[in-house]
Amino acid sequence: MSAIAPLAQRLLHRLTTPLLPDDYLTLFNPQWSQRTLQARIVAVDRETDDATTLTLRPPARWGGHRAGQYLRVGAVVDGVRHSRCYSISSAPTTAGGDIQITVKAIADGRVSQALAHQTRVNDYLEISDAEGAFCWPEAIPQRALFISAGSGITPLMSMARDAAAQGRLPALTWLHYAPRQNDVILGTALQALADAHPQIDLQLICTREGGQHLTPADLASRCPDWTTRPAWSCGPTALLETVEALWAETPDAAPLTVERFRPRAVPLSDVTGGRLTFLSSGGGVDSDGRTSMLETAEAAGLMPKHGCRMGICHGCTVKLKQGQVRDLRTGQCFGDEDDLIQICVCAPAGDVAIEL
Ligand SMILES: Cc1cc2nc3c(=O)[nH]c(=O)nc-3n(C[C@H](O)[C@H](O)[C@H](O)COP(=O)(O)OP(=O)(O)OC[C@H]3O[C@@H](n4cnc5c(N)ncnc54)[C@H](O)[C@@H]3O)c2cc1C
Ligand code: FES
Known about the structure:
This protein has eight helices and 19 strands.
């Protein structure tokens, strides 16, 4: 992994690459870059076997964040630059303050494995400004409900820490799911927060140690007044589907706000793919019609530009030149020549040619 290489390595790289003025500055201190935001890693803390909290020191001109927001992190892994989103797990600080992200290594995950297991103090990571609307409203409610699982705890941790720091913590029922006690990401900090604030009713459910996955009956018994509490939920797709179905069946319930780490995908039973042709790079590859064109292109060795990988940022948009594509979030097919398509959430529906 590289975050940013040590000085000697950077010098060598620069000597063999045409330089821009910004490059001379970043040679000596990556944080002097005016083109990119480079955060220095000042602490690396192992949370669980597969999750790590990175404490980042952003450059002074980084714009700060609202609790619950995420940032895009650029990392070079095996010579290829990738971008992934990570929610900030720390509370907002004053300008120049450190922030934390907590990364769970996914099996075969290109970036999460590198960030969670190979990052070192004094590495640099390229970051974006904070984005996202998974936040407290201006007036933090008197009572609230959090439902999280796995690494989905991160934005909620930031929100709870923020409200606690402001002395505005609501009466908060917090259901958090993990396979086992040892798998609870940010578990020590979560317990400490709950111990320090009696208004937090923390219910930790370990599903491989006797605990049940969320069901409507279970929610009603754990939080009898759940329909009256504004709720925030973040976690794996299965949890979010259960939560959203429950709220959809209960139209009178107080509002639910959801944060997804992966795009919503509809089940696709009967789809055909086709040949995906890359007009600018040359060549093409067969597609199964279910895998995003971004992932298909990456598997074919291309490095398309991208940001969020879930249809939010438009950082992956390319021009469709021929054929139709399927939006994997809705199952709908669309496309005319010269349409701009988001390749992170679309797959070919038949033979397709794109300007990539
Ligand atoms: C708004 C937002 C906030 C996020 N916040 C966090 C966070 O705080 N902590 C954190 O650890 N992650 C977070 N993520 C997820 C993160 O962006 C990456 O998707 C994740 O780290 C996997 O990247 P990768 O490169 O390792 O996997 P890839 O190499 O891209 O994928 C490897 C395999 O894992 C699958 N996969 C990809 N993402 C996930 C996922 N999230 N869960 C399960 N399987 C997956 C892929 O389909 C593929 O099969 C967030 C995502 C978003 C959109
Ligand atoms: S990468 Fe953000 S919309 Fe595709």
